[in-house]
Design brief:
This protein has 468 residues and is an alpha/beta fold. It has 14 helices and 19 strands. The strands form four sheets. It has an eleven-stranded mixed sheet, with helices on both faces. Strands 18-17-16-19 form a four-stranded mixed sheet, covered by helices on one side. The longest helix has 22 residues.
Length: 468
C-alpha cells in the first residue's frame, strides 16, 4: 500500500503543478507555521492581510472605494492592525452578489474560476476563486488529515454528491480520482441496495480515511449496524464529516459502525476550508488562510467564550476578495489555546445550518444537496426552499429575479425530475419572500417523508439549541 500511496502522491503533485496550483508548497508552509506562537501566527495574518488589501485596492474597484471611504490606503501602509481593519464596514452576501463584477479580478494569475453557493436561505451566490484559494483548501485538508495520521496519496473514500449523468469531464475526473487513490461514492443515491454496495466497496478499497456529509455518513453507518456489516477496517484511522453540523448521536453511530474516531470539518464554498477537529477534540481554525472576527448584532467584537456572528476575511481570496465578510454562522471563539501546541486559533462552538434528507418514490435516500444543486445553478432563482410533502411531491417556493421566466421554471422542473425520478409532481410557487423557521433558522430543504427500513429521521435532526 505504501508504494501505491507514493505513486498516487506523485500523480497528485504532477496534477497540481500542471494546474499551476501551489498546493504542496503551501502545505510545507502550513506544516511550519502551525507551530509558531499565537503572536507569530497573528503577525503572519497581518502580513497576508496587508498584501490582500493592496491587491484588492489595485484590482477591485468596489474594495478600492470602500478603503477610500474608510480613510485606508493599503498601498501607503507599512503594516496594519486589527483596529485598522475594523474601520471598514462589514460586507454581506448581497453586496458580494450585487457588486461581483466590481470585486472580481478576472486576470488574477492562474485565472478565476466561477462557483456558487446557496446562502443561508438558499439564495444563490455566484463568485470566483483563484489558484491560491484552491491550494489553500487542498493543503489545509491535507494538513488536517496528517493530524490523524493520514498522508497524501493514501486511500480515501468520499461519500459525496454526483451528477445525474456522467459527462466526459466527469469520467475523466473519476479516472483522476482512482489515480490519486480516491474512491467517490454517490451521496445522492442512498437506496438500501446502493448503501449495501457502498459498504462492500469500502471493505475492498481499505481506506485510511472516509470523508463525506455528516448526515449521509450517519445514514450509511445505521444501515451497516442494522445489517450487522463489519466496517471496522484495520486500515481506517478516521472518518471526517463536513457540510453541516455533526450531532452527538451521529458521531456515536458513525464511530460505532466504523470503529474509529470521527472528526468534523467546518467551512463554506465562499470562504473555503475553515477549521478541522484535532485528535484532542478541538475545532482548530486555519488561521494562516482565514482571519476570523466574532461580532455581536451591532458589529462590535465579542470576547472569547461569547457567541457571535463569524465575520471572515479570506487571506487567499485574491480573485474575489472577501474582506470583513458576514457569513451568517454563529460561532464561539475559545479562550483556550490548541492543546497540542499549535499557535492556531480554536473554535469552541460552531452553530451551522441544518439540511434534511430527501426520499425518492423508489426508496432511494438522498442528501438535500441533490436538489439544492439544481436550484443553485439556475439563473433566475433568488431565494428558494424545497418542501417534500410526499415521496412523489415537491413544493418549491422561489423568490424570482429579473431572469425568471416560464423557460427557467421548466428547467427547474426538469432538473428536479432528473434527481427525483419519473412521476414526481413538482409545484413551483413564486413568492416575495421566504420566512425563516419558527426557530429563526433557514433551511433549504424540509422533508416530511419517513425514511425506509426503520431508519429514524429524528436521529438526523438538529437538537434544541441548534449546535452540536
Amino acid at each position: 500500500m505504501a508504494m501505491v500511496a507514493a505513486a498516487s502522491r506523485l500523480i497528485y503533485r504532477l496534477q497540481e503543478g500542471a494546474l499551476h496550483r501551489p498546493t504542496f508548497a503551501y502545505l510545507r508552509d502550513l506544516e511550519e507555521s502551525q507551530w509558531r506562537s499565537r503572536e507569530g501566527v497573528e503577525a503572519l495574518q497581518r502580513e497576508k492581510l496587508l498584501a490582500l488589501l493592496r491587491t484588492a485596492q489595485a484590482h477591485s474597484p468596489y474594495h478600492a472605494q470602500r478603503f477610500a471611504a474608510a480613510g485606508l490606503d493599503p498601498a501607503a501602509m507599512e503594516s496594519i492592525t486589527t483596529n485598522d481593519l475594523r474601520r471598514l464596514p462589514l460586507m454581506d452576501k448581497e453586496e458580494a452578489r450585487v457588486h461581483r463584477e466590481e470585486i472580481v479580478w478576472h486576470d488574477v494569475p492562474g485565472g478565476a474560476s466561477r462557483y456558487n453557493t446557496g446562502g443561508s436561505s438558499g439564495r444563490p451566490l455566484v463568485f470566483y476563486f483563484g489558484r491560491r484559494r484552491q491550494a489553500s483548501d487542498a493543503a489545509g485538508r491535507m494538513r488536517a488529515r496528517r493530524w490523524w495520521g493520514v498522508e497524501p496519496g493514501e486511500p480515501e473514500v468520499y461519500l459525496w454528491g454526483a451528477p445525474v449523468e456522467l459527462s466526459k469531464t466527469d469520467r475523466i475526473k473519476t479516472l483522476r480520482d482512482r489515480l490519486v487513490n480516491q474512491l467517490v461514492l454517490n451521496a445522492f443515491e442512498m437506496s438500501p441496495a446502493a448503501m449495501d454496495g457502498y459498504m462492500e466497496a469500502i471493505r475492498r478499497f481499505r481506506p485510511v480515511c472516509i470523508y463525506g456529509y455528516a448526515t449521509s455518513l450517519a445514514l450509511l453507518a445505521r444501515r451497516a449496524l442494522q445489517r450487522g456489516v463489519d466496517l471496522h477496517l484495520p486500515s481506517l484511522r478516521v472518518v471526517c464529516t463536513t457540510g453541516e453540523p455533526l450531532y452527538p448521536d451521529q458521531r456515536q453511530v458513525i464511530s460505532e459502525a466504523f470503529g474509529c474516531p470521527v472528526a468534523n470539518e467546518y467551512g463554506s464554498r465562499d470562504i473555503g476550508f475553515t477549521a478541522h477537529e484535532t485528535p484532542a477534540g478541538q475545532m482548530v481554525l486555519m488561521s494562516e488562510s482565514i482571519l476570523l472576527e466574532v461580532v455581536d448584532g451591532d458589529g462590535a467584537p465579542v470576547a472569547p467564550g461569547e457567541p457571535g456572528e463569524a465575520v471572515m476575511t479570506g487571506l487567499c481570496s485574491e480573485a474575489q476578495p472577501f474582506i470583513r465578510y458576514r457569513t451568517g454562522d454563529v460561532v464561539t471563539l475559545s479562550p483556550e489555546g490548541c492543546r497540542e501546541g499549535r499557535g492556531l486559533h480554536v473554535l469552541e462552538r460552531v452553530a451551522g445550518r441544518t439540511t434534511d434528507l430527501v426520499v425518492r418514490p423508489d426508496g432511494t435516500v438522498m442528501h438535500a444537496l441533490a436538489v439544492i444543486y439544481v436550484l443553485r445553478a439556475t439563473d433566475g432563482v433568488g431565494e428558494f426552499r424545497v418542501h417534500q410533502t410526499a415521496p412523489d411531491r415537491l413544493e418549491v417556493a422561489v423568490v424570482p429575479t429579473a431572469q425568471w421566466s416560464d423557460t427557467v421554471a421548466a428547467a427547474v422542473r426538469a432538473g428536479l425530475a432528473a434527481r427525483m425520478g419519473e412521476g414526481v409532481e413538482i409545484a413551483i410557487t413564486p413568492c416575495d419572500r421566504i420566512p425563516p423557521d419558527p426557530s429563526g433558522k433557514f433551511r433549504y430543504v424540509v422533508s416530511d417523508v419517513a425514511l425506509p427500513d426503520g431508519l429514524d429521521r429524528d436521529a438526523f435532526a438538529a437538537p434544541v439549541g441548534g449546535a452540536p
